[in-house]
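Hi R.,

Here's the chain you asked about this morning:
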Amino acid sequence: MRRVARLLWGLTIAIALGLDAPARASSFARVGLDYLVAENGLIVLGEVLSTRSYWNDPGTLILTDVQVSVSEVLKGKWNNHEITVTIPGGTVGDDTIAVVGGAELVSGNSYVLFLKKGDLPGAGGVHVVRDHSQGVFEIQPGKDGPRAVSQAVRLELVPDAFGDAAAPGGAPGLRLQALRRSVRDLAEVKR
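And the predicted structure, written out as tokens:
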């Protein structure tokens, strides 16, 4: 019975972490690239090396530490070749917690990650993808070179103040070179 109660509590927290919009439970307020750059202190391009899921200290939520090999820092300062990113959700044994709209990071895949130091239940001062799936751009091959596709294309986004409801780049994503340039230009403007 305690295990079921702990899973329900963890699921409640996980769902709460996934809700950024006051609209429908499965919707997020759309954020643009300018917001992502302004609100996140570290933006990196890298490949996921490994993941490790575990129960947080109070045993109420599964967290996943993602080890990322950093190939390029687009904003901020990071001198190491690797960084650990902690995301809510994951699988430990037979227990799985999924976060609605959460970031999904898979070993062997490359991403542009919008990161911030933050706290998760039972894990303080860790690097987090604060904007969940909107803060993760998957690197995919394209006819015109690598493309960065926001994981938020899988979500129903609530339009922003300008009426835009599409994730930056939409379904085809942005050319990786264009995203790099945009992030650097926006970071420079915000200084």
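The first helix runs from residue 2 to 17.

Let me know if you need anything else.
M.
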